[in-house]
Amino acid sequence: MFAMPDRQPSLAALDWQSVCRGPAIVDIGPFIAGSLQPDDRRRAEHSLLETYHAQLVANGIGDYSLARMQHDFALMLPCMLAGIIGWLANSDPDRLSGREQRLVEAALGDGRVISALLDHDVLQLLNTL
Predict the structure, then answer these.
(1) Closest Cα to residue 48, out of 71, 68, 25, 64?
(2) How many helices (H) and strands (E) does the chain have?
(3) pTM above 0.85, yes or no
(4) Which of 78, 104, 121, 122 has minimal CB crowding within 10 Å?
(5) Is 116 helix (H, G, I), strand (E, B) or coil?
(6) Each residue of 77-123: pLDDT tens digit?
(7) Rounded to whole angstroms, how far apart are CA atoms 66 and 53?
(8) Residue 71 contacts residue 21 (beta carbons within 8 Å)
């Protein structure tokens, strides 16, 4: 919940789409990997992560390094793919539209998520765990 002290009445919004407890990358990671075309993601990823990390630090998160955030981003990618595939297993692809169709395209069709997995050599990373 976010309050804006200089505005009355205050507005609060809750995003319940992917409720979970975990590293901050869970918020920004799917946006970066799922919303941007591979070439755009490659150009902007580092800057987006740096900017997001700077905001976390500015708002009191002091024990989460940028290097750890980048590591967590790579680890988030197979979780993201697994979630999309799990969701697809319970969906009728012929009836998808809007956001749901774009998720399928991002995961399987246009290579956004797959390219991020490959760019970060996630298989090698998982082998080191």
Answers:
(1) 25
(2) 6, 0
(3) no
(4) 121
(5) helix
(6) 888 888 777 777 777 777 777 777 777 666 666 677 888 888 888 88
(7) 6
(8) no
- What is d(CA 100, CA 116) in angstroms, rounded to the nearest whole number? 20
For residue 34, which amino acid is it? Answer: G
Residues 16, 26: contact at Cβ < 8 Å? no
Q: What is the identity of the amino acid at 29? A: G
The reply to whether omega before 5 is within 30° of 0 (cis) is: no
pLDDT in tens, 63-76: 899 999 999 999 98
Give the position of tokens 């918020």: 27
Distance from the first to the final alpha carbon of the chain = 34
Q: How many angstroms separate the CA atoms of 35 and 24, rounded?
A: 18
Structure tokens at 104: 């399928």
Nearest to 36 by CA among 110, 93, 119: 110
